[in-house]
Design brief:
Length: about 325
Amino acid sequence: MSSRRTFMQSAIGAATVLGGASRLLGMNRKRASDRPNDSTPLPVNTPDVQALSFTIDNGVKVFQLTAEPVKRKIAPWKTIDCWGFNGSCPGPTIQVNQGDRVRLILENHLPESTAIHWHGLEIPYAMDGMPYLSQKPIAPGSRFAYEFTVHQNGTFFYHSHSPMQQMMGMVGLFILHPQQAHAPAVDHDFGVVLQEWAVLPNNTVPNTANMEWNWLTFNGAVSPMTTPLIVRLGSRVRIRFVNIGMDHHPIHLHGHTFVVTGTEAGRQPETMWGPMNTVLVGVAQARDIEFVANNPGEWMLHCHMPHHNMNAMSEPMNRST
Ligand SMILES: [Cu+2]
């Protein structure tokens, strides 16, 4: 049965696996140790969630976001009625470069008012997305344009600041790339959004007032629907976790030792990197981990809280067997 897991599959010797990985992730590049550290950052890959495209208006990157109800198939036998952006829950991944001027136009197709908060971004107060404080709520059928310059870099995210709307799914990754890739450069850069849902059997609408929940999704899906994070043996891997639920999640990686290289506020100095295999991703936090995929296999990546390790009280599935 399902589990709240996704899988990190280190590439193994089989030619078919390597070929598939190469097609999937375009891994014709050199190994991390061979890549120059002044290279440009890789785009972040968020499996099961699309990247948000943009247009350029007089040097400003313009993104269109539509807040709307979304039907999300989180398991082969379970589709939920949640809220998200542009037909996606979590919302599409936004990626910009440090120093960019960005305009994000939010159109509200929800049955109630909303706004977007840019979590952790040091931007003018009027852009902070606080209904009744920094702006009027965006009424159903209307729109609002957020515009600011990003001077930070790291793993950030956007979300509605209404708790009920957060628990309906209104969150997405907002990646701010540095001008030059951090050293050591990585060969793979993944993003994973953790979300919790209280959806009883024979129901499809999350109970946002319920403090007990029964589904934990990685990028809007649970195993076996999560896309494996396929990487090449010997490559350096970064995985960025964001948690926007009502519980903290100790995320555990099998078979490897990693270091935490970033938080929700950006890059950590290397003097703070220590060996770990479980990282606590607290509510409203982001954690970037990096490691060398030096151990071939189909390795589990999962929350280690026993309750969180189940979905709808089903037994975790061990795909490694
Ligand atoms: Cu957990």
